[in-house]
Amino acid sequence: MADEVVIERLRLKIPNAHIFKLPPKPSAGGWRGGDWKDKIWQGSLKVVERNDNTAVLLVDAQEENNIFAVCPINHQLDERANNGGNGVDRCIDSSRYFVLRIQNAQGRHMFIGLAFNERNDAFDFNTALEDSRREKVAEKKAAAAPSLGNSRVNSVDYKMKEGEKIKVSIGIGRSSGGGDGGAAAKRRLEKARSSNTGSGGFLKPSSKDTPSRLA
């Protein structure tokens, strides 16, 4: 049996991220980064996609194979939903602080605090997660759409049968301006034919044509 091919995509890397041990969550409101005092780790953050899975990886700044923690991202694939509850929560007092739901290989989880030095890093982090979600939504819609290759089109045989003749009928259409539209159209056609005498069937330009059309 052939080995499974794993496609990994690095969507974002931020070299400086800070991790805090969380104090008890306030009974009212959400998490507040200003309450965090116990810093437990510092290193690089990566947003990575592996096949259909997305995760936030906290890795050693010098040795990226040394993974401190993994936060699986559970995208909300409802097109109208935001990405809340995906494993990352925002703090209510700062745009640079987040709460991550990390999980180990046995499925056990806990919450830790994440902080960035710069607002731009926090913005890039939010954008990477939202872009990943939107792509997953688009992939879901594409998978649900009917395939054109599977649609059946009724075939029609347009070949003439032996002995069959073609009858061509050319009629003068009615004008939307009045009941004698057919007669008026017929008169215009006869006038056009009379004006074409000696011109080899080529219609002369109208006097209303612009010089650019006559050139």
Strand content: 25-35%
The average pLDDT score comes to 77
Query: Main beta sheet: strand number and arrangement?
Result: 7 strands, antiparallel
The CATH topology name of the domain at 8-143 reads PH-domain like
So, the CATH homologous superfamily of the domain at 8-143? Pleckstrin-homology domain (PH domain)/Phosphotyrosine-binding domain (PTB)
- What is the H/E order? EEEEEEEHHH
Strand arrangement within the widest β-sheet reads 4-3-2-1-7-6-5
Number of helices: 3
Unreliable stretches covering 5 or more consecutive residues: 172-178, 197-215
**What's the CATH first level of the domain at 8-143?**
Mainly Beta
Percent helix among the residues? 10-25%
Query: Over all CA atoms, what is the radius of gyration?
Result: 35 Å
Through-space gap between termini: 74 Å
Question: Would you kindly provide a written description of the structure presented here, covering whatever features stand out?
Answer:
- By secondary structure, this protein is α+β, with helices and mostly antiparallel strands.
- The chain has a domain of 136 residues: Roll (PH-domain like).
- The protein is 21% helix and 27% strand.
- A hairpin with a 6-residue loop joins strand 5 and strand 6.
- The radius of gyration is 35 Å and the shape is elongated.
- It comes from Skeletonema marinoi.
- This is Adaptin ear-binding coat-associated protein.
